[in-house]
Amino acid sequence: MAAAKGTKELVSLLEKFGTCEIADALVKLKNRSGGHLPGIFAHAPRPDKAGPSTGICGPAFTVEMVSQADVDAPKPDKHFVDATEGHEGCVMVISAPPETRSAIWGGLMTLRAQALGVKGVVLDGRCRDLEEQWDSGFSIFARSHSTLGQSPFTRPSRFQVPLSIADPTAPSFPSTTIAPDDLVRADVDGVVVCPRADVLAVVEAATKAREVDERCKEDLLQGKGVKETFAKWRGK
Asked: Which cofactor does it need (predicted)?
């Protein structure tokens, strides 16, 4: 069981695979969304520097943002970035109300997160200060960016609670739930979330799929057709 292995070991196993491989494995394991966070892509480092160094993998540290007009939602006594102290190596996952057009992450947040050993941030929302972010080398995955700051539009409410992230433009697509310490893998293709309990099964499935793909590549390079190659190695 995955619980028998520590977080660092699980991360080291999963980070060997790209987001596409992990998503395919999750689909095979009957995960309806494949762990996919639709519409969230790399915004930093600088686009022309995007590559393997952009990729991150780590346990989720979740933050729920709410509208600043929401007076009933809990109010934390810590800044949401400061709250990651003691969670070195985590990937922050921050959700905001879908109608939010202001940023929920800026350049100063990146400086503090880097000092605390945060690997990167995944935003179900927007970032800003792009040039600062590009120069920082910090990995940021977001829906978009904005000129507006967080205040007076949103505020943090709860930390380390399950988040449900959906595509606001495609309500029929299954949402993905991220629990604290689920593993987040992000790269140039996008972001996937692997439930902690499924990591070992995902690694096993992804390993087998990679071996099959390598055989397919060999045949395609030899001039064989896609249909016959897939029938031979994928059984379809």
From this structure: Mg(2+)
DSSP-based three-state secondary structure for 187:
strand
Cβ atoms of residues 186 and 120 within 8 Å: yes
Q: What is the structure's pLDDT at 4?
A: 60
Residues facing 120 on adjacent strands: 91, 139
With beta carbons less than 8 A apart as the criterion, state whether 123 and 25 touch: no
Query: What pLDDT sits at residue 50?
Result: 61
Span 2-195 CATH architecture: 3-Layer(bba) Sandwich (3.50)
What secondary structure letter does DSSP report for 3? G
Tokens representing residue 161 in the block: 């609670």
**Domain coordinates in residue numbering, the chain:** 2-195
Query: Residue 156 above 60 pLDDT?
Result: yes
Q: How much is the pLDDT for 20?
A: 98
Residue 52 tokens, joined: 């393997």
Per-residue confidence at 49, pLDDT binned at 50, 70, 90? Answer: low
Is 108 one of the annotated binding-site residues?
yes
> Is residue 53 classed as helix, strand or coil in its secondary structure?
helix
Distances, alpha carbon 181 to alpha carbons 7, 58, 163, 184, in Å: 8, 8, 12, 9
pLDDT score recorded for residue 52: 62
* Residue 109 among known ligand-binding residues: yes
* pLDDT, mean of residues 223-234: 86
pTM of the entire predicted model? 0.93
Q: Is 111 annotated as a binding residue?
A: no
167 a known binding residue? no
**What residues does 62 pair with on adjacent strands?**
93
- Rounded CA-CA distance 46/41 in Å is 13
Residue 24 assigned ligand-binding role: no
Give, for 64, the enclosing helix (H) or strand (E): strand 56-67
